Target: Plastid light harvesting protein
Amino acid sequence: MKVAATLLALAGSAAAFAPAQQQRASSALEAKPFSDALGAQAPLGLFDPLGLIADGDEDKFNTLREYEIKHGRVSMLAVTGYLVTAAGIRFPGAENIPDGLKAFPALLESRDGINVLLQMGAFFVVAEIVNRDADWLDNEAEFVGDYRNGALDFGWDKFDDATKLKKRAVELNNGRAAMMGIWGLVTHEMMGNSILPGGYLPGQ
Model:
């Protein structure tokens, strides 16, 4: 053991005196594709444990980024809806509908509830159609996930590049947090363990 420790110490000392050019070359070889992309930030940096984008394929990266943004946006709406209904807020006529996962079987018990579910399904279909880059328009998306299609702006074009990048990073990180959030909320509800203030458990 002492011999092994001595050899390791000598190897570490030798590395400290290696030529700077060799060290830079080694660092360049270790750099991962997309390590400087939006969302690759502290503390994890580029998080790709399965190596899905290790080949550096930009089209694949853009496709996966689009999936990430879309799921993040849906999850942000899901977390908001989950917490709002858990707070006791309902649309008129839905006061007796339980919150949490028990809302779905409760809606299936009445014709009005079924109509609500059908409207939700129709909304998802329309949203899936609308929220994409319209190739048939004379318009080019500014970045992956830009679905304005020359119609919706809300002052985006007035921001400088640094502000745009910051806001895109905020949306990406909020979406990531929301994906974990709705997963945690639903999982704890199914386990019967409340993580909401006051120990409230939706669906009970």
Q: What stands out?
A: The chain is about 55% helix and 0% strand.
